[in-house]
Design a protein that fits this description.
Epimerase_deHydtase; alpha/beta; single chain; NAD(P)-bd_dom_sf; seven-stranded parallel β-sheet; three-stranded mixed β-sheet; Rossmann fold
Length: about 325
């Protein structure tokens, strides 16, 4: 896909953002990355290939200057806080960062005539499943402020479409996982709460064990089932969504997942096979708000964007994450 103009990537130094930056650069795109580095890593970006701006999207003067200087033709918005538990105990932090701050960005887009927006949304906007697999018509009833903040921004974007013609794609991820197969970038959260990296941290001896929350769910082995989507597949979906909007596409919500579910126990067993290590496990009670099963219905992504997950086997996700954790960077970027 030939570049048609500069793209502004918010949160491009984070986990999913940096993988998408790498994918877009390989397609010849010109990128400006805005990141406050609260959770992102400057070292995750090829600074000789992108224009990097260290700043916050809530800074109206800075954002307006970016639009004046670079005239982006589209925005890919990744910047958000994403710790569900923290969102429950500190909801205002999440509404300020995930909802209020993007309004500054949208106001700049409106002033400068930028009318394409790709939003890193989440299946957490659905809340507890009414049916599985979950398609885009599933009711949206988020059960925590994180999911609610994403759902509210989706509503804002629809209203902006009606008011001034902004066209958006809301990409509702299921469980992002895996790392760049080339080992250049990876997943490095602090604190780390995602299941696969924590399992691998237990395998590497970085933590004492992996805690399984709940073994009495109505699933075949009693543990929760989730749909794991490789981060490189998420990156390709963003590029295809960009092409869709460039082609005149309308505002749409699109689920991203494989359509296959794997239990916590199955992921642990797969990780043991990949690493060749025994993984210590402890068991705890269910966590509030954890539904037994979350599985994506990805048919719309294929029909609308021509997208389909290429990494369907969780072994691939785990292997790429293990390679990152044990590779030259040892799973962490240099300080």
């Amino acid at each position: 896909m030939a570049s048609q103009g500069t793209l502004l990537i918010t949160g491009g130094a984070g986990y999913i953002g940096s993988h998408t930056v790498k994918h877009l650069l390989a397609q010849g795109e010109r990128l400006v990355v805005l990141d406050n580095l609260v959770f992102g890593h400057r070292e995750a970006l090829p600074l000789d290939q992108v224009t990097f701006i260290h700043g916050d999207m809530s800074d109206a003067e800075l954002v307006d200057q970016i639009f004046c200087d670079h005239q982006p033709e589209a925005v890919l918005h990744f910047a958000a806080y994403a710790y569900v538990g923290e969102s429950v105990t500190d909801p205002l932090k999440y509404y300020r960062n995930n909802l209020a701050a993007p309004l500054v960005l949208l106001e700049a887009m409106q002033r400068h005539g930028c009318r394409r927006f790709i939003f890193s949304s989440t299946c957490a906007t659905y809340g507890n499943p009414v049916h599985v697999p979950m398609d885009e018509s599933h009711p949206q009833a988020p059960v925590n402020p994180y999911g609610a903040s994403k759902w509210m921004l989706e509503r804002v974007l629809r209203d902006c479409d009606h008011a001034w013609g902004l066209k958006s794609v809301f990409l509702r991820y299921f469980n992002a996982s895996g790392c760049d197969p080339e080992g250049q970038i990876g997943e490095d959260h602090d604190p780390e709460t995602h299941l696969i990296p924590r399992i691998l941290m237990a395998a590497a001896g970085e933590i004492a064990d992996i805690t399984v929350f709940g073994t009495d769910y109505p699933t075949p082995d009693g543990t929760c089932i989730r749909d794991y989507i490789h981060v490189n597949d998420l990156a390709s979906a963003h590029a295809l969504a960009l092409g869709y909007l460039r082609g005149g596409g309308s505002t749409e919500a699109v689920n991203l997942g494989t359509g296959r579910g794997f239990s916590v126990n199955e992921i642990i067993q797969t990780a043991q096979a990949v690493t060749g290590k025994s993984i210590p496990v402890s068991y705890g009670p269910r966590r509030a708000g954890d539904p037994p099963e979350l599985i994506c219905q990805p048919a719309k992504a294929k029909a609308l964007l021509g997208w389909e997950a290429q990494h369907q086997d969780p072994r691939e996700h785990i292997q790429s994450a293990w390679n990152w954790m044990t590779g030259p960077k040892k799973g962490h970027y240099a300080e």
